[in-house]
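Hi there, hope your week has been kind to you so far. Would you mind checking whether the tokens look sensible for this chain? I owe you a coffee for this, so here goes:
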Amino acid sequence: MPELTVSQIVFLTCVVLFTLVSAFSDLRTRKIPNKITVPMCLAGLVYQISFFRLEGLWSALLGFAAGFGILFVLWMVGSAGGGDVKLMGALGPWLGGMLTLKVLFCSFIFVVLGTFGIVIWSAFSSGIGKTKSRYLKAGVASETVNDRKKRRVMAFAAPVALATWLMLAVEFLSQH
């Protein structure tokens, strides 16, 4: 097994711990706190500049723009939560633009598959009527933010964590 460089050790440690903590928090409370996303975003900028100088800065900015930007648009149309936007905004500087896009794409696939599985399981275990009333909107005007949170089928941070780990494994294996 090839030895890891200092930058790879720092990168893997920070990204794996961040995604693990974010997924746990999102699954448990349906929130990803600012106290972990903001420092992680800033640490990603420092990491990129420290190890890769100006090229790292551009990579971090592209990663932030890709992660935060895409999820921000989804948040604006009501398809993502604010924590999801912050999660990808914090992860983007670490991953850079292209890897962030790969993680997002893979995450969306995991979300679709996971949501499909959860809804099918719910339909079989609770019945179609209960599943419909649990996951479909009652009415646009009457739905509160809290109602929308309860209606969400799955937390986004878990698919992001799985997608990140998968993409890192693929990247690492393709380099060695």
